[in-house]
């Protein structure tokens, strides 16, 4: 607890061990399964379908030291690189170690998202038997990881949008395995069409929370023109400024497709898109709603504020650096605390680093942010 408040980390991560898929994937896929290849001169590589990953530059490089901040492996310059296995915090791949980390930092529970699993599905056909088998393997491993502390280590399952599977059966299998949370399926593209309706319906039926994590959320941008204007690169500043866009776009897409109207008990949580943009977004969404209604065009069943103010079904996690003191009171019940541990740049000592931020917040927002909102998300 932090100053008497219960704390839940709404966006924690595992780092999948290099041997996960060899141990957990179905035998038919083991020969060519995901694996980590040792390279002491340039850093270990993730091998996907027999080739090095195009998106992951390096795995590991410097032995993990619990007394120093976590290093960004991609920026390392060394004559020889430590292995991926010795570079990962034990808490990232071992459930008992993660439980000790939670106790050390005064955190009651954490939601667990993948790390490599946010990236490698973008390098394969997400509807392929290969992708389906590897995501199922990850879920089996994650269930074992979380079994070290049920209720405190909260696994978030992964699925693929594939004609090879019936999404409602995949969701039911996750629920039967003890999962209460699932990420948006990999492979969603274009419109939020009826292909996803079995997923929404099954998640609602089984009471699973659907999580939309920035890296794995499709942008849904219509791009009819061949022209574009962009910064050279684009660079780090361009990307960092715009990393909230997936959340904004997908929220609009959900309302446009009337998903909350058709599945009113479905709960959704957005991660790494922050929440500070939401008040201005709601003003624009309200204007759009009224304009379209006046001209007889399609809109959600209710004004946008209804879904964010009057229902307890949308949540948004936030990390250090966002000005939460400006968040309107009617949105206090929507915000969740996220550490993003154990990724580079995450709080090294979260309780100490959050302390000055919490001090400047309205008294009612502190318990809501730290754990009250997340407990509602976990307990329903």
From TrEMBL:
Entry annotated with the keyword Cytoplasm: no
Pfam families found in the cross-reference section: Amidohydro_2 (PF04909)
Keyword Transmembrane helix found: no
Domain named Amidohydrolase-related: residues: 91-379
UniProt-recorded name of the protein: Amidohydrolase family protein
Annotated keywords: Lyase
InterPro entries the record matches: ACMSD, Amidohydro-rel, Metal_Hydrolase
